[in-house]
Amino acid sequence: MRTLILLIAAALIMGVLCAPHKRTWRVISTDKAPRPENPRSQAIITDSGVIETSGCNGVVPSTGKMISDDLGEQMVQSMRNLGAVLEAGNASYEDVFKCTVLMGDISYYDKMNQIYGMFFNSSKLPARMAYAVREIPFKGKVEIQCSALSRD
Ligand SMILES: *[C@@H]1O[C@H](CO)[C@@H](O)[C@H](O)[C@H]1NC(C)=O
Ligand SMILES: *[C@@H]1O[C@H](CO)[C@@H](O)[C@H](O)[C@H]1NC(C)=O
């Protein structure tokens, strides 16, 4: 009898341990970065702690408007918006392992690099793709997206 109970208990424990793990992800949202007015999340986080952000541009969260027409200002605001979204996922710039940067014109490349570089540790830079595209939504000059690992 005792052996039978032990066998049943062991079977139940094995069943729980071996049950297929359903992978999930959650939406990250914050008021400290612009709220999307289109069908997307600011970012998502997988159950293993990988964060994927949407593209961040130079819109100021409090006004909902592009900060200005200036490339440098848009670049700084885009990076700040990215930082705010990362923070909502318990991550920061140092947790970023990959970035994608879109520019409205390839002549923005040097200035973009100069400002981009100020936000990261030069000994541990994320991998990156950066390219010019024909147009960026809302007449933006730059748009930045990243992948990061949450600290929690
Ligand atoms: C960030 O950490 C806080 C405190 O541990 C937690 O409540 C929150 O759910 C975390 N955020 C995400 C997106 O995991
Ligand atoms: C920059 O990254 C290097 C290599 O991972 C690390 O040793 C150093 O402490 C980091 N510096 C800062 C300021 O975080």
Automatic annotation (TrEMBL):
Alphabetized UniProt keyword annotations: Signal
UniProt KW Lipid metabolism keyword: no
Signal sequence interval, chain numbering: 1-18
Gene Ontology CC terms: cytosol; mitochondrion
GO molecular function annotation: deaminase activity
Name the record gives this protein: Reactive intermediate deaminase A
